[in-house]
Amino acid sequence: MNAQTEYLLQAGPAGALEVAIDRPSGHVLGTAVIAHPHPLFGGTLSNKVVQTLARAFVQSGWRAVRFNFRGVGRSEGEHDNGRGELDDMLAVVAAQAPEGPLCLAGFSFGAFVTSHAVARLAASRELQRIVLVGTAASRFEVAPLAGELHARTLVLHGEQDDTVPLAAVLDWARPQSLPVLVVPGGGHFFHGQLPLLKDIVLRHLRP
Predict the structure, then answer these.
(1) Residue range 39-65, pLDDT digits in tens
(2) Which CATH superfamily groups domain 6-205?
């Protein structure tokens, strides 16, 4: 993301996982782990939306950890339709944020994986903030979020997303009474609206 980004390889369930870490300049509030979009459609830790999320977390005082799912970049293994990718994300959390304040975030396919990571970790970790962008609810079975997490969760979607229709996300959110913040005119990748995306996330991350 910048000259200060630290890249490393850590152990994962299907081999090495490539990790990128960005740190705030001052006091560190905790760690945010961010998941990227679909590996088979060009998704990587360098995706612009993922980088925008990382910048927002760093600016808010969080250590931002991005990683490549299995089979992407220098990460070993093969795509596993979300099952193995969930294991990848949990392995990154265990290695990079074994304790302390934790945030989870994801974009598109990464938001789907993040929803299941939230479900898996909520009983054992206090999740400070959750950010789901362009949640791939039309393509995958996104996990519901526990009611007590709703106030800490930002579900953000573009009005004109032609990859994941807004209606699919509303259908997922409606039974949970989970609010969805809609960006008027926004597409799946928020072209031309990344500064707005960052500002919305920054507001969500304020104490």
Answers:
(1) 999 999 999 999 999 999 999 999 999
(2) Alpha/Beta hydrolase fold, catalytic domain (3.40.50.1820)
Global pTM reads: 0.97
By C-alpha distance, which of 66, 35, 41, 34 is closest to 164? 41
Sign of CA dihedral 67, 135, 64, 146: negative
